Amino acid sequence: MFSIKKSDALLEMIRDKRQMTGGQKMSLIVWLSVPGILAQITTVLMFYIDAAMVGHLGAKESASIGLIESSTWLFGSITNAAAMGFAVQVAHFIGANDFVKARAVFRHGILCTLLFSLLMALFGVTICGRLPYWLGGGSEIAGDATIYFFVFMLIMPFFQLSTLSGAMLKSSGDMRIPSIMSILMCVLDVGFNYVFIFIFHLGVLGAAMGTALSVIIGGLGQVYFAVFRNKILALRKDRERFVWNGGYVLNAMKISLPMAAQSLLMGGAQIVSTIIVAPLGIFAIAANSFAVTAESLCYMPGYGIGEAATTLIGQSIGAGQHALTKSFARMTIWLGMSVMAFMGVLMYVFAPEMIGFLSPVNEIRSLGITVLRIEAFAEPFFAASIVGYSICVGAGDTLRPAIMNLFSMWIVRLTLAAMLAPRYGLPGVWFAMAVELTFRGTIFLIRIYSGKWLKET
User: Fold this and answer.
1) For residues 96 and 318, what is the distance between their CA atoms, to the nearest angstrom?
2) CA 96 to each of CA 14, 189, 230, 318, 320: distance values in angstroms, whole numbers, following the listed order
3) Cα-Cα-Cα-Cα dihedral sign, residues 75, 161, 310, 377
4) DSSP label at residue 97
5) pLDDT in tens, 97-112
6) Are 141 and 62 spatial neighbours (Cβ–Cβ below 8 Å)?
7) Which of 257, 253, 255, 260 is nearest to 112 (CA)?
8) Percentages helix, strand, coil for the chain, rounded to the nearest 5?
9) Residues 71/149, Cβ–Cβ less than 8 Å
């Protein structure tokens, strides 16, 4: 069903400005979405297993990793923002059949993001000893937290190369290799963690080493396929010497900086949300954490479809096919909403099983089931925000969507959660989340259907 030749042929139709039927467009969306969805779901499942293995180390060790987990995610999201600034331009040039310029942007991306990641690694290594205390950790967990963060920051250049190469492959329409590599990294992470934690008894250092080795191997694999094997981006296809073009870097910054700023501020919002939940007690804190984990299985399809949307929008704009661009935008956003509406139904029905798998404590299960069922009603609009944002990224429109995300999160969700939490507890916090996601999805639907995201490219 998921033929590479067929998807390549359909992508060529975009670049050649040929008319596509509704069936061909939907087939292409599905072919590009499914590998990403499978990779996202596998990543979450492997994260569960990984977390369980670390959990066997003990409460202190688990807390030390959990303390700086948000920081590692933050640095990871910044590398993604840096990569997307170049990847979006590559998608546009590929859509315009200008493969030479696409490879030129790729070369600029390698140089710039590698330098950027080295600076991030230096910064991270410099602050690693103080970061656990800045985050409120005590001396009993600060040592292990420092070790884990130190190892993670050492491999930041490999992490950045992996992110950049994956984004480039997706921009060319190759969703299979990044998905396979993502799955491979997850499997290797679990395998290496088992060896280093349970055989060599290295504790938190072993967990960090397992993650580091999996990222290095998976990252180098993606680099190999992007630089040497991709039919469009393989750098050996160039015969002329490399010429620096500052315009590519400036365009990348225009795309990347709003995304990076959004990552920083959204991370801050998550911290504030945790502060709102903390006074509700240990059962509420645990139920909130487990519910977030359980819900992640339901919104992964939205991110897979969003990745496909970014590629299709980018190439369609590059080809100058504005009617096709709008059609792909509408089809991907409604497909995302339909799939996540179905996932919302499953989440509502199977909430007891999803929470029960994570905790046997009745108080935690009761709260977790309640909040998951509240959130289930917002899943279609969550999809609209995920895919809608991905559409805008594919068009290079990142500033206003970032402002929309931040306004929705900081003004709507956090304000409403702070008002409802004292009276209604954790269900009030999750009701605020459901209202905010519905609001965010609605404003993204308005932006996509207004066409303003396309006029600004």
Assistant:
1) 5
2) 9, 39, 18, 5, 7
3) negative
4) T
5) 999 999 999 999 999 9
6) no
7) 253
8) 85, 0, 15
9) yes
